[in-house]
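Worked example 4.2. Below are the chains of a multi-component assembly; read each line carefully before continuing.
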Amino acid sequence: MTDTALRIGLDIGSTTIKCVVLSPEGEILFSCYDRHYSLISQKTRELLTHLDSEVIKGQRAHLSISGSAGMGLALGARIPFVQEVYATKVAADRLAPGTDAVIELGGEDAKILFLKGTLEVRMNGSCAGGTGAFIDQMATLLSVTPAQMNEEAARAERTYTIASRCGVFAKTDVQPLLNQGAARADIARSIFMAVVNQTIAGLAQGRPIEGRVLYLGGPLTFLSELRACFDETLGLTGLCPENSLYFVAIGAAMQAGEPMMLGDAIEAIDAFHSTESYNALPPLFESEAELTAFRERHALAKVARRAPETYTGDVYLGVDSGSTTIKSAVISKDGELLFTRYQSNSGDPVPHVRVFLTDLRREHPEWTIRAGAVTGYGEELIRRAFGVDYGLVETVAHFTAARAFMPDVDFIIDIGGQDIKCFKIHNGVIDNIFLNEACSSGCGSFLQTFANALGYDIAEFSKLGLAARRPVDLGSRCTVFMNSSVKQAQKDGADVTDISAGLSISVVKNALYKVIRCSGPEELGRRIVVQGGTFLNDAVLRAFENELGVDVVRPDIAGLMGAYGAALHAREQRRLQPGESTVLDAQALEAFACKVTQTRCAGCENRCRLSISDFGAGRRYISGNRCDRPVSGGQQQHALNLYAYKQEKLRALMNTRRELAPRRKIGLPLGLNLYELLPFWHAFFSQLGFEVVTSPFSSRKLYIAGQATIPSDTVCFPAKLIHGHVDWLIAQGVKTIFYPCMSYNIDEHLGDNHYNCPVVAYYPEVISANMPAARAIDFIHDYVGIDRRRFFPKKMTAILQRHFPDITLQEVRAASDAAYKAYDAYLADVRAKGEEMIREARAQGRRIIVLAGRPYHVDPEINHGIDRLIAGFDAAVVTEDALSHHMKKEPVGVLNQWTYHSRLYAAARHIAAQPDMNLVQLVSFGCGVDAITTDEVREILESSGKIYTQIKIDEITNLGAVRIRLRSLFAAIDQQRAMDAHTADNSGKEV
Amino acid sequence: MSANHVEFTKEMREAGYTILVPNMLDFHFSLLEKVLHLNGYNVVVLKNSGPGVMSEGLKYVHNDTCVPALLVIGQFIDALHSGKYDLDKVALAITQTGGGCRASNYIHLLRKALKKAGLGHIPVISVNMSGLESSSGFKLTLPLIRQVICSLIYGDCIMHISNQTRPYEHKRGTTDALIASWNDELIRQFNEGKGLSQKEIRANLQKITADFDAIERSREKKTRVGVVGEIYVKYSPLGNNGLEQFLRTQDCEYMVPGVMGFVLFKIDNRIEDIHLYGGNPFKLLVCSLLKKYVQKMERILIEAIAEHPAFVPPSAFEHTKSLVKDVIGYGSKMGEGWLLTAEMLELAENGYENIICTQPFGCLPNHICGKGMIRRLMQVHPGINIVPIDYDLSATKVNQENRIRLMLAVARDAQTKRQQQELLIAQDEREAACSGNCEACKKAM
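Applying the procedure described above to all two chains together yields the following structure tokens:
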């Protein structure tokens, strides 16, 4: 009997629902594509009802569901489910035979299928970077639609580097570009390139994409420029076939099971929809009365205001140029708030500020602007553009404003669109700063994104949460993961009020447990001021109070505190330094013009792309620079930077190559365990008669050259770089590479053991297993123990003799002696230099920053020039290994068993006793061991009243955020010093 | 010795302190609990799970720490907060392998968490064989070690064969009922001081394997799925979101290598270290003797299972080790090290080609031995079908299960293809005399 029933396939993705109906012969009879706004059961029901009456006409049909958001529904309603990647494969086999690889991007998924040879399918797991949602997010940031972004990208002239690993990181790359005035077309194209890189690096994992390639899914169907970027990178011309949106649905239809009546399926969906089975939290308010009391209490926190028309005379201006918005405030000479404005910056703050200032000058000619101050991401730009008198770091601005509401405030938390800033106040000094660097899940844009996805505006959406009966427990984690949690909750019957409340609660939990990582309310203090736009949302505020069990103050200008603080700061500064304000007047504003030119910096090998905004009259703003060179004209002091010194030492070694060596070339990749041991191995192999070829310091180019063979996309960046180094060596024609596995490092007697971390210890195994080029040469990656000096020559001889039979134990003994000698000399030299720098810094009264990390953090591509950034603040920069030898082993609160980490604890203990030293710790993203060291180092420092500062670094790092952190640290140190001096003076008087 | 250390003293033991232990494998741990009781330790294996465990973990442990630490510590603190235990008469015990992975630090993270939670006075016992920490109230004596190993042998045996009967049993629940009855029986024997000598173990294992083989079951072929990974995530349903349960609903036969392999691996590491870097010959001797003893026990286990052709027996440690000889170095010992890679090959060799490689999100050793080796394994064993799954408190079940479904879809695709091929081969065989080199012959050998 031939099967005459029609076949229906539904593909329910994260944002859209796609449907096809196939004839028994496989012809497409019907297809549709629609957004579902997360109303999955409802939409599916509507669609099936429509099909039943219009297409299937009440007959039996084969039905199956596919797609990431369809699984719950399919299982719950007992409709056959086809895994979506598999569905794509089935469809591709049928519709495009001979295809070698398929690249499919969806709303939140990215997939690559290799169809030729061994079938391999890859999909993104824990990361939604490089997907449709990411592109949408970026388009929102540029205030365009994705289609407009596509048009823009076609006009691009250049590409910037943007991290695509996570939308969060990308935002932090795009925002500064926008703030710096980079061309939108270039940014648009850069975003597409980021998607391409993410897909290839994250999913191909070393398998080349070649031959006939199909592009499927929404983004690749609708965005021609995205396809062009893939074509360019892969060096081929991929095909976007007919029905490219429907492959999953077609595959699902082809795999559908026994025919069924659609009416039965609809009934099953209804039954499933009515069950409620998610984890619920207590409601935000038990009763209406509670809500009223809450509102009344918060209505009391009001700033002093004055009607603008009743005031004439001196005013002070504050501007907070944030990542997505501009907030401005004008205050009277008595600090009363006269005028405010809160607006989106649409990616370019300059015209908005200009309009604001023009309005202000025109509408209030009776006011005299005595001084202005600007804070926030766009601080420098706005200051230069409009001649604003002062600039201040955001943390100080917020603290200044909070003090106006609560003079004895001891904790301030500010949650904005993408940033969380919070800090403790200890003895009137900002003492502990937390910024979200790696994650924006505790922020306002997170709520915004969800509100939009569900078709609400943010204010309306968050209000819904106040009435929620059973808020969804979404936990505290990344936005990316939250999407699927929300999906699951919806599947389990949560309605929009429960989701709204649940999201507000999770914003708070993220801020508390992820960013601040507090373990209880008592840790944060009891005098708390909350601010930032996100707290204007009552549900978030309530969730925060509930979580902490304390009533907090939310100023009625919670969203304007930065601007208000800046205005107060301007007033205070003017009081200290009387004079005229330089803020542009009406005439100058009228004539205002901004010319942006692009150029390459010639200051160093980084060759940064600079955007120079010229506002005339000598006011210029340079952006895109990684260091201060183009700004300060290359005057930077390197004399007191131990990072720079180490780089010089290593560079000298790299350039030492023994010409006419009796043996052949041997390559050493400069990374992980070889970084600090380069002097050791260089001496060792040179002594043995090899010509040692060392790979250079890392660069973006070197990284990209090796990225295709990285198997784990969550490993730390320093490890990923090794692929590029090995690739570089092989490209130099080196036929032998030495890169040893080392469980143990040198024992410095600072800990209970002297391990390397697993990645540093065994990464050579990954290179050997994943780089075909390394297997084709002599890649020596044996296990070597340099900690056992007595055994080393014998063990090493055995290893080397397998590759060079003529090497003798005697030779190796001599080489080993030379190696240990060279290594000891190197360490001694670094320590001596460190001491010298510290002495000099002390003599000159400079601050001393110990930039602590791992030896490989010296690499300029890994540390992103943060050492120079610090040196630019006129501080001396030294390293932890220049100090750790001062200390003896002492108990710490954790298992102290890694050589490099033991140095951190020892250095921290040393610094704790030095009043003029502060520690800044560099932490590579994904470093599991640093989850342990950071807490311990913090504890050591804080127990002696020091401020702990941690900077997370990755492939790309937002130096803007790093700058805020450093400036806050310096501001706090200065304030602390001033107060100490003050107390010392007073106590002096008493005596 | 660390700053937060509160020692578990002999007096505490004598005063009958309750010692809480986190759960990892139900059967293994219920026997261990008994063995420790018999040695005078008032041990309770924790069974609490649910959102309380996770929220306490998130609250008291650095959130970037791997998920086993969050769960184990969360489970402890949740239990301490439950009011079930006298907080002045309770101690905690946790294992510490002393490797270069951050797992050796769990005990310190636990102490930090206790301090944060205001429970800093509660003693924590480190169960380790590396001499990392000692306490006068708890001693890993030789007889105790022997009894622990015996319990693990029983546990491994029952886990290994029950996984092969449960999916096929005619009457649902037969396998689990048999497990429960053997649990009671072994504990009864332990109480009488029996069941722990080699002779008794051999006899018991023979009975156990016979009992399980007697379960009536179908002959159908289900998709065989092997699970490897970080030890806690791989075994504990709390750590892997009920992976075993999920695979059961997907009509799979589930297999996970036993604990003994890990024990032998940790002993073997010490021997390999000395081979690689030199060291104390006495230590080498002690470790070699210990390894020999455990291997003898392992042999008893394998022989008992191998007597029943219906069961796939576990591979001997030495064999498993030999599988990765040219794949990864034996010096790679942190975490599950080379054993993880080797177990994937062991499973594939035993017919479990579809493999889930489980790891905590951001697990360092797994970057090397798990994800880092997949490409190589596909060269060494074409047809191997591995999916790495990250576990994390925020990773949703939906995502994880979707990835596993994909792996299963590929597995079934391959299975169909193979069946078609086998049919063709069988046809060829009938048509022409076989030279002995065909797939079917190789298989038969």
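Take a moment to check your reading of the output against the notes. The radius of gyration of chain B is 23 Å. Residues 397-431 of chain B form the longest helix (35 residues).
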